Protein: Tol-Pal system protein TolB
Amino acid sequence: MTLRPVLAALCALVAVAGFVAAPQTAHAQIEIDVNQGDVRPLPIAVPAFTGAGRGAEIAQVISANLDRSGLFAPIDPAAFPERGLDVNVQPRFDAWKTINAQALVNGNVVVEGDGRLRVDFRLWDVYSGQQLLGLQFTSTPENWRRVAHKISDAVYERLTGEKGYFDTRIVFVAESGPRDKRIKRLMIMDQDGANPSSLTDGSYIVMTPRFSSTSQEITYMALRPTGSSIYLFNIETARQETIGKFPGMVFAPRFSPDGGRVAFSVERGGNSDIWVMNLTSRAQTRLTTDPGIDTSPSFSPDGSRIVFNSDRGGSSQIYVMGSDGSGTRRISRGGGRYSTPVWSPRGDFIAFTKQTGGQFHIGVMRPDGSDERILTTSYLDEGPTWAPNGRVLMFFRETPGGAPRLWTVDITGRILRPAPYQGSGSDPAWSPLLN
Structure:
């Protein structure tokens, strides 16, 4: 991490449905260069917000979010030289320097006459004594955790120059029971593991859930005694429907970036090909006709290309083709077997699972196959999914005889941590930032 002066700038207005954000003048003094290979976490202090309730919890959620990113080092509250900070009064910066706090976040919580929660916060550069950010969020009291996530995103963006990823959700497969009779339910939770809830009852096996670009729909595969189907699940209404019948096993569905299409694989007679369905007309188009096994399609952010894995060359490798099935070319060049490719929301990398030397790895490569980097190595790492800012990946890890657990790693491979959710889970999918 480096601290360096940058040009003065006004903080941006945060406009989010369900919230009201009001900006105040700010001058940038510090930032974290996330492109450096060795980033030292920035010491930051997040005292309990003052005012009417939830202040301590909001500060705890912000501190935990920033800590998990690996870019910030929240300071132990026991060391804080001031408490009960008024958002309208400058902190005593000399006192905060004695504990090496370089950034300070303080805030206030008010319950308004209509019952809504109003949260004001300030982000300070301790060493320059400048306010970097000042915002106000208003929402219903039950949304206090989302307010904390939005403040976390604002702090992250102000100090790194890149969008945050904290006001997001994860859908995944919760696994329970013995390995030969495993119950697999679809679950959804906040990115920090809070508010987990089941979307299916475990009476049938679910696999490969994926969010739409609006975060309001999920597509997933359901395996029942009668066969496999691809479902669309509306999170708001809990309504679900199949996208059609296919003469074979269907799996690995993925939305296009505009949410208008779903790409998936159809297995028939030992061969698997990639298809795409227009969700408005329900017209189906077969994109590959190779006798090899083609699967795990994932659209590029602009929807013009699809990455997938295929064993058409003798082993499972990564290929890219146009979204109409044209111009297929292999991009993976290393040894081993590649699977589950996923295009980054930024478009700059493709994440994948790689199996080589008796180990599993999560890695990334450029869309042309260059700059391959292995980020993790273990007995079993699989199923990467991107945070919406394209800086962090979630995947699942299994140990011999153990249950699968969710983990995160950044694109440098340096910040590798278990996800906050303590239960068993596999096949995660990260939502876009919520509106």
Notes: The helical segments are 55-68, 93-97, 144-160. The first strand starts at residue 20 and ends at 21.
